[in-house]
Design goal:
The protein is mainly beta and 784 residues long. It folds into 6 domains: 3-152, Jelly Rolls (Sandwich); 164-238, Immunoglobulin-like, CATH 2.60.40; 253-353, OB fold (Dihydrolipoamide Acetyltransferase, E2P) (Beta Barrel); 362-470, Sandwich (Immunoglobulin-like), CATH 2.60.40; 481-603, Galactose-binding domain-like (Jelly Rolls); 607-746, no CATH class. 3% of the residues lie in helices and 48% in strands. It is built from 3 helices and 66 strands. Strands 25-26-23-22-21-24-27 form a 7-stranded mixed β-sheet, with helices on one face. Strands 1, 2, 5, 7, 10 and 12 form a 6-stranded antiparallel β-sheet that branches. Strands 3-4-6-11-8-9 form a 6-stranded antiparallel β-sheet, with no helix packed on it. β42 (545-551) and β43 (557-563) form a beta hairpin. It is elongated, with a radius of gyration of 53 Å. The protein starts with a strand and ends with a strand. The model is unreliable at 1-69, 71-75, 81-129, 131-144 and 738-753 (pLDDT under 50).
Length: 784
């Protein structure tokens, strides 16, 4: 229903005035009821106004989403009054085909019902549509009124209606004759078929266009004194199935895909192609393989998947080699489309398979990497390693090149080594290539290279190489190894090499002189060692570092011990890991002073001793040993109720001793000329488990008692030292001085003097006899 509230007489005035061009206006109001869906209204000037309401609701004016709007020609304004719920609306303007958001044209109603205030907007353009859209979610508008006011004038140009196509765009199995038309009378149509937008320079439409393959037609309508229409477009997909899909005439991949698109001829059909990709590898549980086929065996174009395919007659595959890329196959099954994948559905099967003979020139190598090339500096080249090179269908000679000068290659083990060689193709049914690290290289942790192998039309092959050059050490030392010489003796000693050592020190055991940063001595052994021992001394040494290192290969060293303080000669001993083959002493960084080194020993056994928190322990060595720095060793003699201790440095195996300190110590091997005299030792060695008979006293510290030798009971374990005293002696225990173990004296518990010296308590008071606990005699502490 339309009511004309105002009809201007300005047109009549314009005829009277003559040359003056007047703008004409029209206001149209659509009432609350009777808003008819899709009705088009015409104004007095021949300009169309159409009002379209989406959704349902009849005369109550429900206003929904896409398609709802008012279309006008010319300039104008629009006012809307609305009521309802969830009625935030977004207004966009429309010209031609493209919607463009109008950020200033966002209208809303507060949803309070009747009497909601109206909102308005204006626009310019020869063709304008105002669209009111309901936002996402529930709810709708109930319009009260729509008022449109617009103007037209002599300068307003109408627009041609866009062309339409017949038949409609779509998928067809045969060629189509497409006609194009427009509702604008006497308009001329121009079109393109190459995807570009048409202009008046494009082909003019005069008769039906025959489309025999997939084509997109674009067209415009043109007429004098009219704006050109918008571009109309239609795509026609012409699907052709060239083959029957039988075993005698199987589908191509394109046929199969077209059949799936048309949903015709998809059950119990055959298709052929070349395997282009293994999608899912051989599944041994279910005996299937998923693979793609294409017309040319590549993945570039159309592919058809055999999903979980089986072998001939539906038999399970037994190996990943049953289907390989490049195989020519015919597959039987049902065609379908899963998502975007065109495929034979599960349980498809091979009808036939042909594996073509490969005639492409190929090169193959038996190894792609060779490592472990090595030699000592000055002793190159390395021992040669090999790989086999084979060629098939070769059309040209074969060239092998190393990318640097570290390595050399040959086809002979003993001669003709070079950085690059070229050999005739006839030699490469199979050929052994020899490779070695060339002579003359300096010490380095890593020498890496790559051999590149080429032949005409064949894919290149590469072999990577890795090796090193170590410090030169003349020969290997054998165990047991002993060295206590000077610098000149190193050259005549197997396994030793040095750098930078100066004139020897005139000492007994530390003759080798390190006096500069980087000075080193290296010992190389070729068998498993267990203990390393040496003497080391600092000569005004301070502020620097002297380091002992070990290595398994002579290249990569790790620190065994680092010295930042060195004074008088100290004997060091270390347990070695079984894989150690190199020992290096190096003046890592010099600040002040020099270092003396000597008395080096390496043996295949390890002797360790442990002293607990009591600070005393007994020990019986299994080898001739030197007690290394940090632990004190003593032999003992009975003197009344006390044990007189005598310090020793080196003892023969089986010698019972008392150790003092706390910790675990590796003991150094001793030569016969280094052993101390132990003839005064009254300690006995428990070489095996011994049953105590009341005459043995073992080292112990009972609760509340000082440490000493107490009467043993039960079993004395092997490896312990003990005292033997006649049973009638009746002595509770034998003690030694805790703070000065070398100053133990005989004590008579009833006398007022000890060795002619007075007795004092800890308070400095003179006493008549020794009291239980600590007493002072001759300035020394005596424990009773």
């Amino acid at each position: 229903m339309r009511q004309t509230l105002l009809k201007s007489f300005l047109l009549l005035c314009s005829l009277i005035v003559g040359s003056v061009v007047w703008a004409d206006s029209e206001t149209i109001t659509f009432g609350e009821l009777g808003l008819e869906n899709g009705v088009q209204y015409s104004d007095p000037f021949g300009t169309n106004i159409s009002v379209t309401f989406g959704g349902s609701g009849g005369n109550d004016g429900k206003y929904y989403t896409t398609g709802s709007g008012i279309r006008t020609y010319g300039n104008g304004t629009i006012t809307i009054t609305a009521k309802g719920n969830t009625i935030t609306g977004i207004v966009t303007t429309f010209s031609g085909e493209s919607y463009a958001p109008a950020s200033d044209n966002v209208w809303s109603s507060d949803g309070t019902g009747e009497g909601t205030s109206g909102v308005s907007a204006s626009w310019e353009g020869s063709a304008t549509e105002v669209v009111m859209k309901r936002p996402s979610g529930s709810g709708h508008w109930r319009l009260q009124t729509i008022t449109v006011t617009y103007t037209t004038g002599g300068d307003v140009t109408p627009t041609c209606d866009a062309p339409t196509f017949s038949p409609a765009a779509g998928t067809y199995t045969t060629a189509q004759n497409v006609t194009i038309s427009t509702t604008t009378e006497d308009a001329t149509i121009y079109y393109t078929v190459d995807g570009t937008d048409p202009t008046t320079e494009s082909t003019q439409y005069t008769s039906a266009i025959t489309v025999s393959e997939t084509t997109t037609i674009k067209a415009i309508a043109v007429k004098a004194d009219y704006n050109n229409s918008s571009v109309a477009s239609a795509t026609y997909k012409i699907v052709k199935i060239e083959h029957a899909g039988t075993s005698e005439d199987p589908y191509t991949v394109a046929d199969a895909i077209n059949a799936i698109d048309l949903n015709t001829g998809v059950t119990g059909v055959y298709a052929t192609g070349i395997v282009s990709q293994i999608v899912s590898a051989f599944n041994s549980t279910y005996g299937n393989i998923s693979y793609n086929i294409s017309a040319d065996g590549t993945t570039e174009g159309l592919q058809l998947q055999a999903y979980r395919g089986k072998g001939k007659d539906g038999a399970s595959f037994t190996s990943a080699d049953d289907v390989k890329v490049g195989d020519i196959v015919v597959v039987y099954g049902n065609l379908t489309k899963f998502g975007s994948t065109y495929e034979f559905a599960q349980d498809n099967q091979l009808y036939s398979l042909e594996r073509p003979v490969i005639t492409t020139p190929t090169l193959n190598v038996s190894k792609t990497s060779l490592t472990g090339f090595t030699y000592a500096e000055g002793c190159g080249p390395s021992v040669a390693q090999t790989f086999d090179l084979t060629g098939e269908n070769l059309t040209g000679d074969v060239t092998l090149s190393v990318d640097n000068k570290y390595y050399e290659i040959s086809v002979s083990e003993t001669s003709d080594y070079a950085n690059s060689i070229t050999r005739p193709k006839s030699e490469f049914g199979s050929k052994t290539i020899y490779v070695r690290l060339r002579a003359g290289l300096g010490v380095a942790e890593s020498y890496s290279s790559t051999i590149t192998i080429t032949s005409e039309d064949a894919e290149d092959k590469t072999v990577t190489l890795g090796g090193n050059v170590t410090e030169y050490v003349p020969d290997y030392a054998t165990l047991p190894f002993v060295f206590n010489g000077g610098r000149s003796d190193i050259e005549n000693t197997d396994g030793l090499t040095q750098k930078g050592l100066s004139t020897d020190y005139n000492t007994k055991t530390t003759k080798l002189k390190f006096d500069g940063t980087g000075d080193y001595l290296i010992l190389k052994i070729n068998e498993t060692a267990a203990t390393l021992a040496f003497d080391v001394k600092g000569n005004s040494f301070s502020g620097g570092t002297f380091t002992v290192q070990t290595s398994t290969d002579g290249i990569n060293y790790r620190d065994l011990n680092t010295y930042t303080e060195l004074g008088d000669t100290q004997t060091e001993a270390f347990a070695l890991a079984p894989e150690v083959r190199f020992v290096k002493w190096v003046y890592t960084e010099k600040s002040n002073g020099n270092v003396g080194l000597g008395n080096i020993k390496v043996v295949d056994w390890t002797e360790t001793a442990t002293v607990g928190e009591a600070k005393y322990a007994t020990y019986v060595p299994n080898q001739d040993v030197i007690f290394s720095s940090g632990v004190e060793a003593y032999i003992g003699a009975l003197n009344g109720k006390y044990v007189k201790l005598t310090a020793v440095k080196a003892v023969a195996k089986g010698t019972p001793v008392i150790l003092k300190n706390t910790g675990r110590y590796v003991l150094a091997p001793a030569r016969a000329d280094e052993l101390d005299d132990i003839s005064s030792n009254v300690l006995k060695a428990s070489t095996e488990a011994t049953v105590a008979d009341g005459t043995q006293y073992i080292l112990a510290m009972p609760e509340g008692e000082p440490i000493g030798f107490y009467k043993a009971s039960g079993i004395i374990p092997p490896g312990k030292a003990y005292l033997v005293v006649p049973a009638e002696a009746g002595v509770k225990a034998f003690y030694f001085e805790a703070d000065d173990a070398t100053a133990i004296n005989e004590v008579n518990g009833q006398c007022s003097m000890v060795n002619g010296q007075s007795i004092y308590n800890l308070a400095g008071q003179r006493i008549n006899k020794l009291q239980k606990g600590i007493n002072i005699v001759g300035g020394k502490k005596i424990l009773k």
